[in-house]
Amino acid sequence: MLGVYVHTPFCKKKCNYCAFYSKTGREKDFSKYAKCVAKEALTYEKQDIDTIYFGGGTPSLLGAENISQMLRGIKSAFNVCDNAEITLEANPKTVTEQELCALFSEGVNRISFGFQSFIDEELSALGRIHSAKDGEDAVKMAKNAGFENISGDIMTAIPNQTMESLDITIDKMLSLGLTHISAYSLTIEEGTPFEKSKNTLSLPDEDTERKMYRHLAKRLKAANFEHYEISNFAKDSKRSRHNTKYWQNEPYIGLGAGAHSYFCGERYQNAEDIDAYLIGKDIKCNIQKIDEAELKKEKIMLGLRMSDGILYEENSKTDKYINLGYMERVGKNVRLTEKGIDISDYIFSDLM
């Protein structure tokens, strides 16, 4: 079955590290944007869908009414299975228990909070609009609304972060009873405020960044989280079904300004232009036909991100990494070891 991704290119405030397409101060466009997403869904032939993911930007900023309108439009345009995973990304500062109850009753059954840290000084440095307490309160409200599948993002190697402050954030994340955690190391992206001030940022060095990642992974695994993908950990078999489609190179349809799709053997993108999207212009761009050679490369790169790995094929390069301890055989598959994850980008490039 297909997945549907809805890009919500709106934010209350741009974070200092974020390079994703989003705009601030466009509240007047929320309702019209929701209608346009529902309309775009109807441009596709009826497909069987088992995951829907509202990402951004800050989808929760649109409010329950607009999100529900988009969701109803998607359900009208596609055959959405009864047990579909429907995820909403949310900033803790932009949710209320009333709104969360409305979303849960509409069918949203998974919520992913962008915590990043539970240290207020670190959140301020990142440019986040929420506080550590907002993060705690958001989880309580989500549980009261009926959500059982709750994910949270955490960042490492951020300005002024220490091993001690990282442990405080991990302790808090574990105390909240989350079913999924996504962990990302800060990367300085072109065009962001951090890129402009990178020479003045107090950032951990590369060795410390790796140490933080390994420490985080060790603590989460000790708390019974499955390390199923390089940056993702799941408890009680609550892997992200939607994101797993990306790593397993399965097709998905992207709706909204800036959304990416992989459908009918092509990768393409909707233009990063809210105004063009709102007037219904033909906005598909960057269309790339995926041939067999490219598909095989993508399956290597994406599949090796997961603990399941990829089908083992005997060749000198794969065997070299196995002998060096960077990869290991698991049944008919081969996957990266913890040691291999540290140089995963190099291994992907070499194998492809």
Short description:
By secondary structure, the protein is α/β, with parallel strands linked by helices. The chain folds into 2 domains: 2-246, Alpha-Beta Barrel (TIM Barrel), CATH 3.20.20; 308-352, no CATH class.
Describe the protein in words.
The chain is of the alpha/beta class and 352 residues long. The model has no long low-confidence stretch (mean pLDDT 95). Helix 2 packs parallel to helix 3, helix 3 crosses helix 5 and helix 6 packs parallel to helix 8. The relative contact order is 0.12. It is 39% helix and 25% strand. It has 14 helices and 17 strands. The strands form 4 sheets. It has a 9-stranded mixed sheet with strand order 9-10-8-7-6-5-4-1-11, sandwiched between helices. Strands 12-13-14 form a 3-stranded antiparallel sheet, with no helix packed on it. A 3-stranded antiparallel sheet has the order 15-17-16. The chain has 2 domains: 245 residues, Alpha-Beta Barrel (TIM Barrel), CATH 3.20.20; 45 residues, no CATH class.
Return the CATH topology of the largest domain: TIM Barrel
Tally of separate helices: 14
The portion of residues assigned to helices is 25-40%
The number of distinct β-strands equals 17
Count the domains. Answer: 2
Please outline the helices and strands:
Layout lengths: L1 E7 L1 E2 L11 E2 L5 H12 L6 E9 L6 H15 L1 E12 L6 H10 L3 E7 L3 H7 L5 H14 L3 E8 L6 H13 L4 E6 L7 H4 L9 H17 L3 E4 L2 E3 L6 H7 L4 E4 L4 E4 L2 E5 L3 H5 L5 E6 L2 H12 L6 E2 L4 H8 L3 E4 L2 E4 L1 H4 L2 H8 L1
Parallel strand pairs: 1-4, 1-11, 2-3, 4-5, 5-6, 6-7, 7-8
Antiparallel strand pairs: 8-10, 9-10, 12-13, 13-14, 15-17, 16-17
